[in-house]
Write a structure and sequence with these properties.
The structure is a homodimer of 83-residue chains.
Chain A lengths: L1 E8 L6 H12 L5 E14 L4 H16 L5 E8 L4
Antiparallel strand pairs in A: 1-2, 1-3
């Protein structure tokens, strides 16, 4: 089973990388960009066919390693490879 | 209008960051992880109400700055803030 974990900075947390992207886009002439924020996606291939167990495992991975829950939010999306 | 740009490494391109994540998860006891790959998401706030124009602008931003199309794929997802 595949799982996608979306990790984004919480609202209100300063995002210097996003600011750099917005600035670079303005420099390139894309003046319509009001704001940019950058997050990350981690695609996991998991040896687990049960969706509930897979989600619980990915949830544990998020709090243990993948996301810093003080400043980041995460969302888990399961993609059944057999689907 | 909001746009999300998903940038992922093309299949076959070595992903050291993903390998590091998979290794760290194994070290933490998550042996069910077969593979991990990391990509990024850029969330843009765009001053443009026309979806077609917004998509064209974001497409131009992707090729100009956001993605390295030699080694990366990108996908654009428009989210109408008024929706």
């Amino acid at each position: 089973m595949k799982a996608k974990v979306h990790v984004t900075l919480k609202r209100g947390v300063l995002d210097p990388q996003g600011k750099a992207i917005a600035h670079a886009l303005h420099t390139l002439g894309f003046d319509q960009v009001a704001d940019a924020r950058q997050g990350k996606v981690i695609e996991l291939e998991i040896r687990e066919s049960d969706a509930v167990a897979a989600k619980a495992a990915v949830e544990a991975m998020c709090t243990a390693l993948l996301a810093n829950t003080v400043i980041e939010d995460y969302a888990i999306e399961l993609v059944d490879a057999r689907g």
